[in-house]
Amino acid sequence: MSVRALWIISHEKGEQSSIKFSRRFSTVEHRAKSLGGSSYVAVPEDNKVLQLLLTELGLSDSDKSYVALRDDCLYRQRSPALELRVDGQEKRVLWPVLAMLQGPLILACLPLVDAPPEPRPPLANLLSVSQGLTLLAGLHTFLLGSGSKPDNEGLASRLAMLPSVLLQVCPLGTPLDVPLLGTSATHTVHTPAGIQKQPAWKTGLHRGRAVVNVSVMETVRSMQYGNRSRQDLWDVYGTVTCKCEVEGVLPNVTVTLTLPPNGSPLQDILVHPCVTSLDSSILTASSVDNCDGSAFSGPYKFPFSPPLEPFRLCSYTSQVPVPPILGSYQLKEEENQLRVSVTLKLHESVKNSFEYCEAHLPFFNRDQIGVADVKVSSGQLDISKEKNLLVWALGQKFPKSREVTMEGKISFCGPTPGPTDPLCTDLTAYIKLYFRVLDMTLSGCCVDQHSVQVYSSAKPRIVTSRELQSKEYFIWNSTGTAPVSSGQMML
């Protein structure tokens, strides 16, 4: 996968958008011209790209409710791969332009599609799309951090570092890694390669104390309906992130993932390009196939030669038998009041030690909360009348019974209407859980310090960690009509 062009655009509210950084790769553009032939469309000037991109994203012509170039039914937007019609005609189209709008910045790139333009290949078949989005996500983390907004001087400093950073992570337009927050072009020492030939993509060597850090993070999603006619859904997505500060031009590291004896095999495994060899049985297990019990269940060994910066070694899914927290939610209308009944139970296989655990109960499309006579068996309850929201802070532990309850009545007689949302109408309501558990994963997947092998002149310090967190964890009101989950829940 290669990138024809890359743009970093400033999009502050109330200010005119402008391109803060752009980079075009002439060698990749030459390949695009050879592949495209008569259908080749050149990348226009930056100002033209900026205008077309803002139009396609709906960020220009705010005084016009209808813009033909964007809103005509013939030009249905296919996110995340946008079409930029260079001359307003369908025949001259730049595709796929990947755009990521985050905070004050728009990050966009045009990956090279190594396939005939017609018929247009499905997005799912294009590796360049997923790798391009990964590159943009890494650049966003490098420039702004995790959802933060640095001061103008900090952002300007990181923008000034981009040419050097791209030389390391995207030489000649081919992404090899992604920069993370704190990455600096001065963190590596440029030295002669020595006896072993240094690859062109590795522009520096690590000097100093050897440390290998391996982190396993699992994210669980769940849709619980409390209704026998509708099946509850949940899935688990795991990532293994490494940071290897090891001396040598091409040091060899092996990380081994293990499962408990009764653990479900890992599935849908994707690995970083730096992995040098892999058992084919590791890659064959897929969540769309029926698991017959013969799938490879580990240990999962990943030998690799690490890049200089933190990277995602692999990702996987796991089919666990039950979600970590089972819930029941019931609302009953009584005159101008709602009777609330909630039960949350922590599964016995889950470690009863949270970094945080909260349950949010929104009540949209009603008048503002007037009186809330609600009691909880454990934790603390915070009532936000302005947001029509109950925040139940469960703390760091469930009680010994591993079960907590909430009972009470809520009246809606505030002076102003509450917030509105199309997903919560009348008795259609939900609980959304937020939690994080350290030193455990739902699948049981872990990395033993003693299983990490490093072939280097200096003995490194090995640091391993694992954690479980929630994302889109919903418990729907069992007496209402909850939305049907669309498609698979795979992340």
TrEMBL record:
Do the record's keywords include Transport? yes
User: A GO biological process this protein is involved in?
Assistant: protein transport
What's the protein's topology in the membrane? Answer: Peripheral membrane protein
Q: Is Zinc among the key words of this record?
A: no
For this protein, the record's Pfam families field holds:
Adap_comp_sub (PF00928)
UniProt cross-references to InterPro entries, sorted A to Z:
AP2_Mu_C_sf (IPR036168), AP5M1 (IPR039591), MHD (IPR028565)
The record's note on quaternary structure and interaction partners says:
Probably part of the adaptor protein complex 5 (AP-5) a tetramer composed of AP5B1, AP5M1, AP5S1 and AP5Z1.
In its UniProt entry, what is this protein called? AP-5 complex subunit mu-1
Q: Which organism is it from?
A: Anabas testudineus (Climbing perch)
Instruction: Give me the gene this protein comes from.
Output: AP5M1
